[in-house]
Amino acid sequence: MGVRDAAVELLHTLVAVHAEVFAGCKPLLEKTLGILVEGLIDTFLSLFHENQDKDLRALDANGFCQLMLELDYFETILNPYFTHEARESLKTLQGALLEKATECAVDSTETPTHNRRPTRGSDDVFLDDRQQGMTVSPDDLIALAQQYSSELLQSELERTRLNTACFVESTPLDSVPESAKAAYASLRGSMDSPSRSFRGSQHIGSPSFSRPRRR
């Protein structure tokens, strides 16, 4: 698992625009990309609202972690062009996903497994909870998503570095989100070392999650 190809392909349009504006009118680069990033996040938010009762009606823990990883990926790469409005929309989207995933996790403790059709294969993630009648808190889901991103974000940035090189080369490290700073620093270091090979990062295994202990 990792960032899906479809997510990487979404960046290709922004890469093309970046190249055109950079070559033709560099002073307008930040404003132009800022408008496009706002539109991208707003589109994500609209898609969530359109599909929350359809494709996302059973958003399980793995699906939630996958989407949060991809949002972290976009935020890290496009960070210099995130406007205040884009960040607010991103927070709204992340909150909506968390609320939906929590709702679905609670439902899974009340509904037999054979009657549910989760979005991704997560039958084992909360199996113990269903058996014990426990509920899953938002904090549990956040912890899982953070673990997922910490294990995969850096390698995914490295794997797709050629797709997003134009953004990486022009991004000051102090503008990168704190949560992704280590991954971003490592990525920049890898680009400065052409002899390093990343072939091994093309295939990334699914991380094993352990449920945070309740205190």
Can I get a quick summary?
By secondary structure, the protein is an all-alpha fold.
How would you describe the overall organization of this protein?
- With 215 residues, the chain is mainly α.
- The chain has one domain.
- Helix content is 60%, strand content 0%.
- The chain contains eight helices and no strands.
- The C terminus is likely disordered.
**What is the overall silhouette?**
elongated
Number of helices: 8
**Mean pLDDT value:** 76
User: How big is the Rg?
Assistant: 19 Å
Runs with pLDDT <50, length 5+?
Answer: 113-133, 182-215
Distance between the termini: 30 Å
Strand fraction: under 5%
Query: What's the count of strands?
Result: 0
* Alpha-beta classification: mainly alpha
List SSEs in N-to-C order. Answer: HHHHHHHH
Q: What's the story with the biggest beta sheet?
A: none
Helical content stands at 55-70%
* Number of self-contained structural domains: 1
